[in-house]
From TrEMBL:
This is ABC transporter substrate-binding protein. Keywords: Signal. Residues 1-31 form the signal peptide. Pfam families: NMT1_2. The keyword Signal applies. PANTHER family: ABC TRANSPORTER SUBSTRATE-BINDING PROTEIN (PTHR30024:SF2), ALIPHATIC SULFONATES-BINDING PROTEIN-RELATED (PTHR30024). Gene3D superfamilies: Periplasmic binding protein-like II (3.40.190.10). The keyword Membrane does not apply.
Length: 339
């Protein structure tokens, strides 16, 4: 199935390689003045596109008197992102709150991984081409749900959160058996083309918007209905990288804050940046319509992440209970005022 989906993706121009860069593991820790960043697919990573396009890390590094070499890598799925960070192959990891909480929980007392910042607030849609599936209660063995990483990705955790609300905490993983790990571009291509066993996708923008162009595809679940406005995707790092590279780390944080202000205040320029950097096959006006949605907010301040953290502890998916969102976010000289 995976090969057929990949071929479909390529045939309609949505496919993308899992690796835009290369990972070498194990790798040695980077010295001050070097930073390696791993991102994934979608508009939720637009702040990183802006940082890259405008060379903002390099600019903020020069303001501190250092030259910074930036390396960019693209992967799919929180599991791959977490592995890359723990192997020492990357320094900054971009993934959902789900993968963050998993790695935060498992590295306490060792690498002490925490989040650096949010990438903004965006609704994620669970979509299906099965007309019988109106709610998550309608999924059956006839359905296959694509998401970036089974049991780890924020989409997977959102699905578990929804299942717990539907059937109770003991049944939180009831729908996991119907899920498959498929990159967003490939899953989108499969649903647009039809004809594969894959008939549902827990997506993110712009892929969820593109796939709704298929009249047979409809929204089953909107995460804003599930949790309210929230920050689904974040950036995180090890305590060692933050402590050993204070100037590089600060340059990155300052660059990200500048990118957020740029994207939030100039949506047209942000759309142009996304197309230019990602080379996405998407109409500019269609993209601008997506990101001009008032529900989309480009911000480094996390919003409403704690309910998912509390849930994961309650069902035993993580062993350490965070007392607040501040437990899994670094608190820098300009502390975030989040939730």
């Amino acid at each position: 199935m995976r090969n057929s989906i990949s071929r479909l993706a390529a045939s309609i121009g949505l496919g993308a390689s899992l690796f835009a860069g290369s990972l070498v593991a194990p790798a040695t820790a980077q010295a001050e003045g070097e930073i390696r960043i791993a991102e994934q697919f979608g508009i939720v990573y637009l702040l990183l596109n802006v940082v890259r396009d405008q060379n903002l890390i390099e600019k903020h590094g020069k303001a501190q008197g250092i030259d910074i070499k930036v390396d960019w890598t693209q992967l799919s799925g929180g599991a791959a992102i977490n592995d890359a960070l723990l192997s020492g192959s990357v320094d900054i990891a971009g993934a959902g709150v789900g993968p963050l909480l998993t790695i935060w929980d498992r590295t306490q007392g060792r690498q002490n991984v925490k989040a650096v910042a949010s990438l903004g607030n965006f609704p994620y849609y669970l979509v299906s081409s099965n007309p019988k599936v109106k709610t998550i209660a309608d999924f059956s063995e006839k359905d296959r749900i694509a998401l970036p990483a089974v049991g780890v990705s924020v989409q997977s955790r959102f699905l578990q959160y929804a299942a717990a609300k539907q059937w109770g905490d003991k049944e939180y993983n009831r729908l996991d058996k119907y899920t498959l790990a498929v990159p967003h571009p490939d899953a989108t291509a499969a649903l647009l083309a039809g004809g594969t066993e894959l008939n549902a996708h827990f997506s993110n923008p712009p892929f969820q918007d593109q796939v709704l162009a298929n009249k047979d595809v409809h929204v089953v679940l909107n995460t804003y209905d599930l949790l309210g406005p929230n920050s689904p995707t974040v950036l995180f790092a090890t305590e060692k990288f933050r402590n050993d590279n204070p100037k590089t780390y600060k340059a990155f944080v300052d660059a990200l804050a500048q990118a957020a202000e740029f994207a939030q205040n100039d949506k047209a320029a942000a759309a142009d940046t996304y197309i230019r950097v990602t080379k996405a096959k998407i109409d500019r006006e269609a993209l601008l319509k997506i990101i001009d949605n008032p529900q989309y907010e480009f911000s480094v301040t996390p919003k409403n992440t704690y309910p998912l953290a509390e849930f994961l502890y309650r069902v035993g998916a993580i062993k350490h209970k965070p007392e607040s969102w501040k437990d899994y976010f670094f608190q820098d000289e300009k502390p975030l005022q989040g939730s």
